[in-house]
Design brief:
single chain, mainly alpha, 0% strand
Amino acid sequence: MQAQTPIPISDANAALSAELSRRIDVTAAGSQETAGLSLDNKIRQCMDLVGNHLIIAVREELGMVLGEVAKLKEKLEQLEFENGALRSENIALRAAAGAEAQTRSQQPSRRK
């Protein structure tokens, strides 16, 4: 089997249509047996073309999904970093607020 390079789906559709038309236009001259075998071969060839087209479409879609996954992983890393920074800041602010409250409770109250 020959390796195929992926082509855009719109080009693949055009190529598929052209190849199907070309293969269907080829007629077999001869007896009914020959015509029957030729029809079977045409059907097999068409099925192969459809299979190849589906493989191309799936590969293209897979490339898009993998790109989206990479973007989402990058965004996840960024958000995890920000979350860690905010948690650290929250701990520091709580500690400072606790120390300030303790200082206030130890000072004598000034009432007149």
